[in-house]
Amino acid sequence: MNSMKPKTQTMMETTTEDLMLRLRWYHSGQVRSLTMFAVYVINLLISDLIQICCLMIWVVLWLANFWEDNMVRCVSSLLYYGAVLASAGFMVCIALERYLVVAWPLWYRFRRSIKSSVLVSIIVWVFCFTEFIISSFVPIFRPSSSSSPSPCSSSPWLGP
């Protein structure tokens, strides 16, 4: 009797598998025919790489007992959560591109260009990081009596 144990995956394994699937798809040659779509997929890949690098930094900091009041943790947290927002933004861009291809194929073929996709990608990156940095450093969700010298130690997103 062979009992099958369910395989449990950590967040790092799932993210790594997702990244490997995207890399395989990129190198398979399908991206060359979908150039405007490829801009968003490549940016999504970059945001996933940023997330994986930040997770590795967090593991090293945790194992080395340098987690508390560390500027590296602060910067990696800002990068990680900004990349999470960018990843969601690029998934929305991919969904909108697919919608435009199906709903208005002629308009999409003659009006869309790689320049517009690159411009939208730049806007997504800038918006995600500025939104997260502003929400991390401006005390909107904190009580007015708590004043902390370090924005990272008092941020509701980056932990105590």
From TrEMBL:
PROSITE patterns: G_PROTEIN_RECEP_F1_1, G_PROTEIN_RECEP_F1_2
An example Gene Ontology CC term for this record: plasma membrane
UniProt KW keywords: Cell membrane, Disulfide bond, G-protein coupled receptor, Glycoprotein, Membrane, Receptor, Transducer, Transmembrane, Transmembrane helix
Transmembrane intervals: 34-58, 78-96, 117-141
InterPro entries assigned: GPCR_Rhodpsn, GPCR_Rhodpsn_7TM
Coiled coil (UniProt feature): none
One annotated GO molecular function: G protein-coupled receptor activity
SUPFAM superfamilies: Family A G protein-coupled receptor-like
Domain G-protein coupled receptors family 1 profile: 17-160
Subcellular locations according to the entry: Cell membrane
Membrane topology note: Multi-pass membrane protein
Protein family: Belongs to the G-protein coupled receptor 1 family.
Annotated protein name in UniProt: G-protein coupled receptor 4-like protein
